[in-house]
């Protein structure tokens, strides 16, 4: 049975399966139910692409989120690892 506070239960479950927190999954599922998935997807932040970051900044971010083996990675490997995380 769907939860009362979740407007798009199917999307909520997919997000939870991908590792999103309950709060974030609910926020995304409810926003897309009200505005449509395409509209919510375009909302995104204004952060520059990882390709535009300096390697030192990529290393710092990789350390923050716990990517292992980062010290031996090239810039492109760091970008790929951060995108896949």
UniProtKB/TrEMBL annotation:
All residue ranges annotated as the Rho termination factor-like N-terminal domain in the record: 57-82
The residue ranges flagged as biased composition, category Basic and acidic residues, are 1-26
Chain spans, region Disordered: 1-57
Q: Which InterPro entries match?
A: DUF7218, Rho-like_N
What protein name is recorded for this chain? Rho termination factor N-terminal domain-containing protein
What is the species listed in this Swiss-Prot or TrEMBL entry?
Answer: Actinomadura yumaensis
């Amino acid at each position: 049975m769907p939860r009362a506070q979740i407007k798009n239960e199917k999307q909520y479950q997919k997000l939870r399966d991908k590792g999103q927190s309950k709060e974030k999954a609910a926020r995304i599922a409810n926003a897309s139910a009200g505005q449509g998935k395409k509209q919510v997807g375009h909302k995104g932040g204004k952060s520059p692409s990882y390709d535009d970051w300096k390697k030192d900044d990529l290393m710092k971010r990789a350390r923050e989120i716990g990517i292992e083996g980062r010290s031996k990675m090239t810039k492109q490997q760091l970008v790929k690892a951060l995108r896949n995380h």
